[in-house]
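#help-structures
NK: newbie question, is this the right format to request a structure? protein is NAD(P)-binding domain-containing protein
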Amino acid sequence: MTTATKPLALVLGATGGIGGATARALAARGWQVRALARDLARVDRALPVDWVQGDALQAAEVTAAAAGARVIVHAVNPPGYRNWAGLVLPMLRATLAAGRAHGARIVLPGTVYNYAADGPELVAEDAPQATTTRKGRLRIEMEAALEASGLKVLIVRAGDFFGPHSANSWFGQVVVPAGRPLAAITDPGRPGVGHAWAYLPDVAETIARLLGREGELARFERFHMAGHWFADGADLAAAIRAAAGRPDLPLKRFPWPLVRLAAPVVPLFRELSEMRYLWRRPLRLDNRKLVAFLGAEPHTPAVTALRASLAGLGCLPDAAAMPVPAH
């Protein structure tokens, strides 16, 4: 297949974890991938994409970059948890304008932030969305705007991300801080409370497989991924120890009281505090619709996925010399 005959996807947020993973998955499945970035001097040239300069906040620049695109992947977020309220919806409006101009399907990686602390434990695609958090309300508003747009839309919802390029995540910022040799594991959750995680390459592969069956998708589609479920922090820690070959790694509690005290002046801590309820109650995503459609959910074994994540985040300096763990 020549470049001229390959379907084209524009990825917004390709410098981030899910955007970069989706770009890789689409390229591997025969798509031509174009990626938008404000600073081309700082992009990953190893990513199999055609980089173009532009700002995701500027509708004209997104629309120009989307010329010829069948799909626009909206995987862009405000950097450093700053000014979500002021940036999230304007960025989505720019993507909507580009989608209208070119008739492209918009793909949104969804989150569990849309669901409230008192909701059901197992959540299907048609479950009511209601939450008291600022970020959750924005996510609900984003999905409502997409549904009301009249455009073709695909939302793939998953748990908290982890992966080789997931430094800006609960996994890479809290559980095992990226860029540091692995010395301990931090547990933000309550003992005995499970948590849903999603391996970035699995999420990206799911998106790519769904887009490969575009003709069978409804105009507005939501799919939930079960991902990786760990019964609690001790369960996750056991898998991380196995992945790292470090049975001695200690498990520490996350200092929630200190985070709450600093939340008024530290934006990151404010965002973490708002999401604490997801670590105090179990919330699982029901993937039966996805399995019925695809036949199976892409799923990398936990220890394999965790080892790749730890190595990619710079937590295992000697990763190249380590044996690959058994599946």
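mod (FA): yep, format's fine, and the tokens are attached above. The longest helix spans residues 84-102.
NK: thank you!
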